[in-house]
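Handout, section B. The chain below has 361 residues.
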Amino acid sequence: MGTASSPAQRFSADDLRAFTAAIFRTAGVADKDARVVAHGLVDSNLRGVDTHGITRIPIYLERLNAGLVNAQARPRIVTESPTTVVVDGENGLGHVVCDFAIDATIERARANGACWTGIRESNHNGSQGYWALRGARAGLMTWAFTNGEAIVAPWGGSEKFVSTNPICIAIPTDPPDELVLDMATTQVAAGHIFLAQSRGETIPEGWALDADGNDTTDPAAFLDGGSLLPLGGYKGAGLSLLIDVMAGILSGAASTVDVGSMYWQHKDRPQRVGHAFLAVDVARMMPLEEFKSRVAGTLAAMRGVARRPGFDQVFAPGDIETANAADREANGCPLTDDIIATLTETGTAVGVEFPSAIGSD
C-alpha cells in the first residue's frame, strides 16, 4: 500500500490521552471511563496498531451521541463460578466493558488457576493485544477473542457472513521481551482499508472482494458491499467461525450477521458484540520465573537463527510493537495529516482543542 503524501507529525502520548478523554466526557462518559478508553486507544497508537487507535474516536463519538452506545453503562457479572464468568456490558463502550471483564478474569485465574470469561452486550474494544497483555503482565497466559460485524465472506462465498474475528495470545515475560501474537483471521484488518480510502490509496490484491465476489484493489469497491478475504483461505474462514462461536454464541452476544455495524449496514442499532478472555496461571504449572527464563531463551534462539536473503532481522511476535512503544513513548506518536485534520474537526465540534505536535510550539 502506498504511503501518505505528507510526513507524519509526532504527538505526545500524554497529550493524546488527555484529548481523547476530554472528547468522551463531552458525550456524557464519566471521567474514569473516559480515561479508560483514552488509555486503550492511545496504547494502540503507541504499539503501532494505528488502525485501532485514536482514528476510531469519530465513530465512537458518533454512536454515543446517537444513543447507540450507553455512555453510562455499568458492566456487571450475570453468571459466575470459580473458573467462569459471564459479563453483561449493558451496551457500553467496549474498552469500559473489557476493563471490568479483564479484572474479573485476572482475579479468578489467580485464585483458582484459570478463568474463561464471556462478555456480551458490548461494542468495539480496540486491539485484543491490549487486553491479553493485561493478563500476561499479571503472570497469566492470556487469550483474547472478539467477534464483530459481518464483513468477511466464508471461503468460496461472495456474501458477508463473519467478521475479522481476531485471536490474541500473550505470554508472561520479563522486559524487554513481550511475547504477544495479535492477528485478525483475515488477510488484513478492515481499518487498513479505511485508512487507504481516507488517503486516496489503492490496496494490494488479495485483501478484499467487491460486491460481486471479484478481487479488488479499490477501497471504495470493498466499502460498497464488498467483503474481506480470510487469512489462508479456508483455514482462516474456519478459524473466524469458531471464534464467533466462542466469543459470540457462548457469551450470549450477537453472532455473525446479527452483530450490528459501526460503519454501514445496520449502523442504526446497537452492535451487541461478544468478547472472550481465557487466562491460565503459569505458576500452577511451573515456577513463573523458570517459565519466563525458558521463554527468554527460546526467543533469543529464534532471533538468532540464520536469516534468509533480503531479511535483516528475525522478529518474535510482539517485537515490532514493543520497539514501536519504546520509540513513541520517547518521541511521540506519528499522525498523518488526514488523521490530524479529522481529529481536529471532531474536537472543534465539541469544544476540545487538538494538541500541538511535538516541537511545533
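Note. Confidence is low (pLDDT under 50) at residues 1-5. Compare this with the example in section A.
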